[in-house]
Input
Amino acid sequence: MRSENLKTVFKQDRPFFLAIPAILWPAIFLYIPLVFLVGISFLKSFDYSVFDYSVIDALTFNNYRLLFSFTYVKILFRSFYLAFFTGFFCLLISYPIAYFLALRVGRFKNLLLFFLVLPFWTNFIVQVYAWFYILDVKGVLNTVFLKLGIISEPLHILYTPTAIYIVMLFCYLPFMVMPIYTSLSKIEKDTLEASDDLGAKPWQTLLYVTWPLSLSGVVTGFFLVYIPSFGEFVIPTLLGGGKIMFVGSLISYFFLDTKNIFLGAAFTCVSGLFLIISALLIFWIFRRYAKKVGGIYEK
Output
């Protein structure tokens, strides 16, 4: 009798039971570690062999006080600039590509989409290291430019901010193209044809019809680029030679080099809060702009 009741309950609540792994996964690997991270950020020392009320004696706000200096604030805004620069220029480059793929390409669309997603099949580290052979003094870029007579001496791009920005654009470009392509693909061709029939020029159709209708993809793509770019560690460290500190580089320095996990946890919390506030501000600006042009957030 009890087994039959259990079977009945399982059948009725099957969606709940099937959703349990999806609930446990972020709880175990995101929320619980986040709670530990916030807790560690308020400690000045910790004895892992003792778990009692003596931990209260180790509580301090000094980790956060140390972060209120010009050096750390400058690193936060430097990472903000890097993330915003990457998102903005990815948008400028991606929109024409997505527009061409969604509305202009004919039978070769699937082939071009395949080449677009092809970089995702390659390991991220391999993509970054490939740029060493392109941007090096004796690399592909300098060799081609010298052969064509564009430059008279090799360009020193590697281990500079320019190298970081170039590779950031390359690696994050598909994250911007795909959401914009999806939103453009949903636009009815009848809508664009109606705009042409009413006498609108191509640029007017693009500006007043296509662009507002594709803002959902623009917003999604921008944040898919902006958020991971803010904490990017691999590209600034390898292509920049570790000469310039960003948020990801500094967190790695605290945890791995100085072994100061308390200050590292505090800076992680501060940078996360900074990222959330800046993302909400950018989203608010997008929403205000969308209302003005009659876009996705008007209703």
